[in-house]
Write a structure and sequence with these properties.
Layout lengths: L3 E3 L10 H5 L5 E5 L3 H14 L14 H25 L8 H7 L6 H11 L3 H14 L5 E6 L19 H10 L6 E6 L4 H6 L16 E7 L2 H12 L5 E7 L16 H29 L12 E5 L5 H9 L5 E3 L15 H9 L5 E4 L8 E4 L3 H11 L28 H12 L5 H12 L4 H4 L2 H6 L28 H8 L14 H19 L4 H26 L8 H15 L1
Parallel strand pairs: 1-2, 1-8, 2-3, 3-4, 4-5, 5-6, 6-7, 7-8
Antiparallel strand pairs: 9-10
Helix pairs in contact: 2-3, 3-7, 5-6, 9-10, 14-15, 19-20, 19-21, 20-21
């Protein structure tokens, strides 16, 4: 019903968003990797509904998958009950059914029918229209996300690796076994062969007799090449990717996977031009795989959508993505952190978000994944980390271990934010006799790491007055740079009005176009990379290629402005300024 979706944010920030927005036709995404958080949410909602809460112990076999399945079933049941109640609500001021239709975009057929209802005084006609409107109501989809790199192995009592027991695989199984329909699982952060291979065991992702998918695959990608590689990998297994979700490499929240200077506009242009070829290529492989296993081969390719997210902030930008790039959906993430009706953010953190300025969001080294991470300074997670350093006890207890990847000192992987790793690494550095500048640099790299498993979960625990991990209450949040231009909490209706151009919640008229904002982030990133790199022929070649890609992107954007596709009068001057900076560096 809507042309936008709410992407996954952190671990807790969209953990129950479907319960808040699905009944209004808005799709949102739940992270399902942190099972202790999910168990906490099970406890919260069962008790809120006065239903028996039966804990799923971590000592049970396959407990992660069981927790996820039950929570998703619970969320689904709550949403279905909400929908039934909404369908029978009266068309009167303030009712949820009125709110449902008022929030729809103006070109939606149901919205146009609703406007006919508003303008009609004929009771017979009104009754007929109301009936049609009630029949048109659809829930937003309850989607889930797995960050593919968070796939820690688990071990049995005998020390052997548990088959199909890794974090991501168990989470996938939990989703597959749920009763969700018309839903999608989004894979982000790159290809994970073990996870993708397990999909072959999950018949829940096959099309039904009518060629429809009850559970769909969505892959978040940074460019066309990534979509083609991952899509072909799965198509050869008889698995259809229903959507590729393009995310800006740097103008996004959370982990940032920078490209080699390839910008969002040119990337989307390639998808626009090559979409049909992509569909044909994948369908040929998909059909062959289905035929090989004796399954029904559809006569035509199943639908394949292209969507995008990262830094969108105005109705004009949203409209550009839909009309020129022909996207099926746009992801609005960071702005929804300021919508309590849509996301779960504790009161103190919400105040920090509202007050955030441009310099408060940094592309940090805080993530134990070793991937750059957008990070809002000044929260309790940072304060706790610094206090531990001052007290001579750096590192986190590491109760969750989802980001345990390092085997530098141990046989089994541990997390670089953990007390165990930091103690071992600091001892090594102290005995290494490094020159003082290098020693300080490496020490800072170690001490920068922050626990994200609890930090990105605790906001929900605080908001719902409960506890996820005893004695751990510190909060970390990861908005994109766009947060600097959204400075107040707003209602769900206010934000949808902003997205569709009926009103604006941005007061800063100097906010740059999303494409300019991303370009500037890439220039900053390149400058940082150049200063940190040891000068060699290889690094020079890499930086030159990066500059070339940025300059080609600028040339592409100039063409869009000249054709009137981006009419912003400030656009050419901003491009000229960016080009001068790049040429000075290169």
């Amino acid at each position: 019903m809507h042309t936008f979706h709410i992407p996954v944010m952190g671990l807790a920030y969209t953990i129950d968003s479907p319960i808040k927005v699905a009944r209004f036709g808005i799709s949102s995404v739940i992270s399902i990797i942190e099972d202790r958080l999910i168990e906490m949410m099970r406890s919260h909602y069962y008790r809120q509904r006065n239903e028996p809460y039966l804990p799923i112990s971590s000592k049970e076999d396959d407990y992660r998958a069981k927790r996820i399945t039950d929570y998703l079933n619970l969320v689904n049941r709550i949403v279905q009950e909400q929908m039934e109640k909404l369908r029978h609500a009266a068309f009167e001021a303030g009712s949820e059914i009125v709110k449902y239709f008022e929030m729809l975009p103006e070109d939606n057929l149901a919205k146009q029918l609703y406007l006919q209802l508003v303008g009609s005084e004929d009771n017979t006609n009104r009754a007929s229209i109301e009936k049609k409107l009630r029949e048109s109501i659809q829930a937003g989809s309850i989607d889930v996300n797995i960050m593919t790199k968070t796939d820690r192995q688990h071990y049995g009592k005998d020390g052997a690796v548990l088959e199909d027991g890794s974090d991501a695989v168990a989470a996938l199984r939990g989703y597959a076994n749920s009763d969700l329909t018309g839903s999608s699982i989004i894979f982000s952060a790159g290809m994970n062969p073990r996870l993708y291979n397990y999909l072959e065991k999950c018949r829940q992702f096959d099309a039904d007799e009518q060629g429809q998918f009850n559970k769909k695959i969505v892959i978040k990608v940074s460019d066309y090449r990534s979509a083609l590689i991952q899509g072909k990998y799965l198509a050869k297994k008889g698995i259809w990717v229903s959507e590729f979700r393009v995310e800006s490499g740097l103008n996004c929240g959370g982990h940032a996977f920078a490209t080699d200077g390839y910008l969002m506009g040119p990337i989307l242009e390639e998808f626009r031009i090559m979409k049909q070829e992509l569909i044909n290529t994948l369908f040929e492989l998909y059909s062959g795989a289905l035929a090989k296993r004796g399954a029904t081969v559809p006569a035509t390719p199943p639908p394949l959508k292209i969507s995008a997210q990262g830094g969108i902030g105005t109705a004009a930008e949203d409209r550009l993505l839909h009309t020129y790039y022909e996207l099926d959906s746009t992801g609005w993430g960071t702005p929804f952190l300021l919508v309590p009706e849509a996301t779960t953010v504790d009161a103190e953190t919400l105040q920090h978000l509202c007050a955030a300025q441009k310099d408060d969001v940094v592309l940090s080294h805080q993530s134990p994944m070793g991937v750059r991470f957008h990070y809002l300074k000044g929260l309790s997670g940072e304060a706790e980390r610094l206090q531990r350093i001052r007290s001579g006890k750096p590192g986190s207890p590491c109760t969750e271990k989802h980001l345990s990847f390092n085997t530098e000192f141990t046989a089994q992987p541990i997390c670089t934010a953990s007390i165990q790793y930091q103690r071992l690494k600091i001892a090594q550095l102290k005995s290494s006799n490094l020159p003082e500048p290098e020693y300080r640099k490496q020490m800072n790299t170690v001490l920068d790491k922050e626990c994200l498993c609890t930090g990105l979960s605790n906001s929900a625990a605080i908001a719902y007055n409960t506890t996820m991990v005893k004695n751990q209450r510190a909060v970390t949040i990861c908005p994109g740079p766009n947060i600097a231009y959204f400075n107040k909490a707003v209602s769900l209706q206010q934000m949808t009005d902003h997205i569709y151009g009926r009103a604006s919640v941005i007061t800063d008229t100097q906010r740059p176009h999303m494409f300019i904002a991303e370009l500037r982030l890439y220039i900053q990133y390149l400058n940082e990379q150049r200063q940190a790199a040891v000068p060699t022929a290889q690094t020079q070649k890499s930086h030159t290629a990066f500059c070339t890609n940025l300059l080609e992107g600028i040339s592409y954007y100039r063409g869009l402005h000249q054709e009137g596709i981006i009419p912003d009068k400030r656009f050419p001057d901003m491009l000229d300024e960016a080009e001068a900076q790049i040429r000075a560096m290169c």
